[in-house]
Each structure stands twice: as structure tokens, then as C-alpha cells.
Design a protein that fits this description.
The structure is a single chain. With 79 residues, the protein is α+β, with helices and mostly antiparallel strands. It has one domain (3-75). The protein contains 3 helices and 3 strands. The protein is globular. The two termini are 27 Å apart.
């Protein structure tokens, strides 16, 4: 199933004011709500939060890169 790992470390790290932090959190919340409405799910796997969708076409329409795909697997191969 297509997925990417959600990690919120540093979400507001580059913000220079409380207003900027609030805007960043609001943007992230709006995205999470849209993903939920479009059928994405949050799954916990090996201590990580993976955002998944059963339809790879919908997943790709958002511009996400599938971490389970062959490109990602090739990155893990030591040369």
C-alpha cells in the first residue's frame, strides 16, 4: 500500500514568531483534514506514523512519493 512517513519534528522550527507558528500549524491541520476526507489513513508501523491510501492513483495525485516503492528500496541498497 502506498505510504509516506509523517514526522512533525521541525514543523515550526524555522518560524520567527508565534503568529508564524500558528499559521504553520493551521496549514498542517488543514492538510490532515483534507487527507482524512479523501480517504487517507494513519497507521502506526514500527514506531512510525505512516499515512497511507489504498488507491495509488489518489496517493500520487497529491504529489506524495511512495516510500514503499522501488525508488525508495533502491536508496537503501549499499553499493
Amino acid at each position: 500500500m502506498p505510504h509516506f512517513t509523517w514526522c512533525d519534528k521541525g514543523l515550526s522550527e524555522d518560524c520567527h514568531s508565534l503568529a508564524a507558528m500558528a499559521a504553520r500549524f493551521e496549514e498542517a491541520a488543514a492538510l490532515m483534514r483534507r487527507l482524512d476526507q479523501d480517504g487517507f489513513c494513519l497507521e502506526r508501523q514500527r514506531g512510525q506514523q505512516h499515512i497511507t491510501h489504498t488507491d495509488s492513483t489518489v496517493f500520487a495525485a497529491f504529489g506524495f512519493l511512495d516510500e514503499a516503492g522501488p525508488g525508495r528500496q533502491l536508496e537503501l541498497v549499499a553499493s
